Amino acid sequence: MHWPIDLIILTFVIFCAIAAITVRDLLATAILFGAYSFLMCLLWTVMGAVDVAFTEASVGAGVSTVFFVAAIFRTSRRSRD
Amino acid sequence: MNDLLPLIVAKYNYWMYVILMMIGLYAMIAKNNLVKKVVGMNIFQTAIILFYVSIGYKTDASIPIIKSSDTAHGMVVRAADYINPLTSCLMLTAIVVSVATFGFAMALIVRIYRRYQTLEEDELRMRLSE
Amino acid sequence: MKFIALIVVSLTGALLLYGTAEFPDWGDPSSPASLHVSNYYIEKTYEETHAPNFVTAVVTDYRGFDTMFETAVIFCAGLGCFLLLRDFTGKKEHFYRHIPTGVILHVKNGKKKLTTGKEFEYMDKDWVPHDLINKTVCRILIPFIQIYALYVVAHGDYSPGGGFQGGVIFGSSLILFAISYDLQTLVERIKEKILGILAATGVLIYAGIAAICMPMGGNFIDYGKLAPLLPAGSHVRALGMLGVEIGVGIAVMAIMAIIYINIVSEGRHDEGL
Fold first, then answer.
1. Minimal Cβ distance to B95: which of A10, A48, A55
2. What are phi and psi of B17, to 5 degrees?
3. What ipTM does this complex have?
4. What distance lies between CA C271 and its chain's CA centroid?
5. What are the contacts of A26-33 at 24+ separation with CB within 8 A?
6. Alpha helix positions (H), chain A
7. Structure confidence at residue B58 (pLDDT)
8. C98: alpha, beta or left, given left = phi > 0 and alpha = psi -120 to 50?
9. Tens of pLDDT along A11-68?
10. Please, are residues A40 and B50 in contact by the beta-carbon 8 Å criterion?
């Protein structure tokens, strides 16, 4: 497999993960988490595991983000750290 | 130090997976907000799934669906032509379990907020000890 | 606290990195994970089950126990959300808005409900005017999303997909309906009782097809013995896998809708996003 694609997507994944747990606004965490899921799905497609990528795309970037936003809607949006 | 660099270049992907796992573990231990802890748990889970899926990869092999040219008369299916399907199928179950846990964790968070009006761990500890 | 966390994390990371020094190279066909059982799966799947997708064949046929309990886990998660959050104290009064004139009606008797549609619509506490473009576009899109979900379930043997993925897509079409229209519209179309029965039926279909193999003279998940029940000449194991995937899809669809409805309305089933 082409190693530059692997390295670039992995770097973005690590940035997304660090950003998702550092921002103070929980809605931004939800969106960054959705982006992290999408990048993981890309990574698995490049490695050939297409079933796992399909599942992660439908679950992580679809339903999981909706649950997250629904829970934030009912609780507070700010976090102290 | 001289032989550390070729080692990193050869196995750089395992190092990235370990870094991702440690980010998730740090979020679960050190963050105060309950939602951030749940996000850290999910990062940890997807990093483990990534590690497993990368083990099943074989160079110059195709996706685990039979090409119709191989099922024509007389062609035998060679194992080195397809990537390992076993790791993918185990990780399907892991993803399903992770989404079930995430949904249930969100329900618990909504309930905790309704009772205590806060989601920070130190304030919760103070309210519980009163 | 953060300092202790940093120390723990660095120690664990260093130990794990030390352990990865002896791993096989990436992409090696002779690494231990690709040697023993998986070669058998790749070589013999098409002859025995006639399903081109190895992953679906392994997941629903060779390792069918795992998938059955995974469906049970999803069912328990939905059940847990329902038990934690559901609040049966109904609202005492309703507010309706007459669409042509904008007049707001306040119905104090909790039992009487007006039918909504072109003339009346529900009003919540944080009511915003419903967007016509949003409603129309989503109303057109939802049937196509559902057809796509059914395609994904039916073609699980031939292309990436399967029961779980199709079920999630169908469930997210129901969630789209609840977001674009109104949560109460979804709850009235598909009652909560029907969703619960559907979820349990999905798990029952899976366990039922697996258990029917036993009186026909086989083991628990042994689809080959179902041949007398199906028309002659069909690939029995592939049809058994299809039936099982339909069960998983139905269960997952109902559970996604249940979890969303309970989280977004805090169990009261009245207002939503």
1. A55
2. -65, -40
3. 0.92
4. 23
5. A26/A72, A26/A76, A26/A77, A26/A78, A26/A79, A26/B33, A26/B35, A27/A69, A27/A72, A27/A77, A29/A68, A29/B35, A29/B36, A29/B39, A30/A65, A30/A68, A30/A69, A30/A72, A31/A65, A33/A64, A33/A65, A33/A68, A33/B39, A33/B42
6. 3-22, 26-47, 50-58, 64-74
7. 82
8. beta
9. 999 999 999 999 999 999 999 999 999 999 999 998 888 999 999 999 998 899 999 9
10. yes
Average confidence (pLDDT) over C96-112:
77
- The C-alpha of C27 sits at a distance from chain B's nearest C-alpha, in angstroms, of 4
- Those residues whose C-beta lies under 8 Å from the C-beta of residue C118, and which sit 6 or more positions away, are C99
Does residue B2 have a pLDDT over 80? no
Q: What are the extents of the domains in chain A?
A: 3-74
Q: Which residues lie across from B82 on neighbouring strands? A: B62
Question: Which CATH number is associated with domain B4-61+80-129?
Answer: 1.10.287.3510
Q: Which of B77, B79, B107 sits opposite C81 (nearest CB)?
A: B107
Q: Would you kindly state where each structural domain of chain C is located, as residue ranges?
A: 49-89+131-264
List helix spans (H) across B33-84.
34-55
CA neighbor of B105 nearest in space, from B59, B55, B45 = B45
Beta-carbon contacts of C176 under 8 Å, excluding residues fewer than 6 positions away, are C138, C141, C142, C145
CB of A76 within 8 Å of a chain B CB? The answer is yes
In this complex, is the C-beta atom of C133 within 8 Å of any C-beta atom belonging to chain B?
no
pLDDT digits (tens, 9 = 90+) for C154-191: 998 888 888 899 999 999 999 999 998 888 889 888 99
Chains that touch B (3 or more CB pairs under 8 A): A, C
Please tell me the distance in Å from C129's CA to the nearest CA on chain B.
27
- Chain C residue whose CA is closest to A45: C160
In the block, residue with structure tokens 């409900």: C113
Confidence of residue B73 (pLDDT cuts 50, 70, 90): low
How many other CB atoms are found less than 10 A from the CB of residue C208? Answer: 13
